[in-house]
Amino acid sequence: ILRTGSGTEFSLSLIMNNVSVITMFFLSGLNETVNHRFVLFFLSLLCYCIIFLLNLALTVTIILDKNLHEPMYILLCVFCMNALYGTAGFYPKFLWDLLSPVHVISYYGCLIQTHVVYSFACIDVSILTLMAFDRYVAICQPLKYHSFMSKQRVIKVACFSWFTPFCIVAVNIFLTSRLKLCSSYISRLFFIVTLACSRAETIINSIVAYITITVYVFHGLFIVWSYVYLIKTCVKSTEKRAKFMQTCVPHLLSLLTFLVTILFDVMNIRLGSIVLPQTLQNFVTIEFLVIPPIMNPLIYGFKLTKIKKRICTVMFFIFR
How far apart are CA 127 and CA 81, in angstroms? Predict the structure, then answer.
């Protein structure tokens, strides 16, 4: 039982056959936010509102404007929809925890949130891979582009790129749900496997996790190869170089932003508890839910000419 200062009680575990079955988790990683919770709540709410409005605006703009129903913009639309999906799985609960006197989350609520957050990250990698392939075909194989990257095919592939990571992460979460846990205290904002009673039980989890990581490392290698090939190709042609600067630079900036935030998160997992204070660990843990969802719509909105013109037209009619 967890007892708060107001006398409210929360059941953290249920004893069955001398085994502690965790039903609630206590988020100990948020303990240091108590003194600044109202400031953090305001900043987090402002951040979420900006993310929601920017990505929704770009999504709606692409859906409503038939001139933007091209492969590159369809993928961008899916990219923004994924940002809405991932942040919706994190921010509402996080905002509630900042104002709550006790930071708890149900066992199944934690599994669902973990699934949403990590499937969001994997889907981002899949979409970035599709964007890289789209640009490769558009610049290196322009005569085949419209036949190979038709609207119907792009929509099908985009749906597949969403559904597959969703299922892969679901398998990882299912394996996690089978573990017997020996603690109900989570220091990271969403991290359960480290609470397992026996390391032997996590062997299958580790194998599946490494397979998942390998799959997305190959995604990353393909992205790197495609852009290296694009750069080598575009150096030889002024026309292709201009096309690369116009359409590929936003993708590269998005990719760089995403990779840097993920790299910091991996470093935090390995070294964070040793060299970083808890507050900074928390920020590094959630930065891929803060920086890319804000930066991506801004990068594409300002860099891609068609979207910029469409947004300017809408803003003109609103504020005239």
Answer: 11
In this prediction, residue 167 carries a pLDDT of: 93
Count of beta carbons in the 10 Å neighbourhood of residue 217: 12
- Straight-line distance from the first to the last Cα atom of the chain, in angstroms, rounded to the nearest whole number: 59
Question: Region 35-52: what's the mean pLDDT?
Answer: 87
Take residue 201 and report the two structure tokens written for it. 């039980």
Q: Under a CB-based contact definition with an 8 Å cutoff, are residues 230 and 246 in contact?
A: no
Residue keyed to tokens 């129903």: 69
Q: Which residue has the tokens 């936003």?
A: 250
3-state SS, residue 196: strand
Burial of 312 (0-12, 13-18, 19+ CB in 10 A): exposed
CB-based contact 107:22 (threshold 8 Å): yes
Q: Determine contact, residues 251/128, Cβ cutoff 8 Å.
A: yes
Angle between helices 151-177 and 203-234 (to 10 degrees): 150
206: which 2 tokens? Answer: 């580790």
Whole-structure pTM value: 0.81
Q: Which domains are delineated in the chain?
A: 24-319 (1.20.1070.10)
Which of 97-101, 149-153, 229-233, 267-271 has the least mean pLDDT? 267-271
H/E run at residue 295? helix 291-303
Residue 96 has pLDDT above 80, yes or no: yes
Structure-token pair, residue 254: 């998005």
Mean pLDDT of the chain: 77
Bridge partner list, 196 = 181
- Per-residue model confidence as pLDDT tens digits over 215-258: 988 888 888 888 888 888 777 777 777 777 776 777 777 778 77
CB 55 within 8 A of CB 84: yes
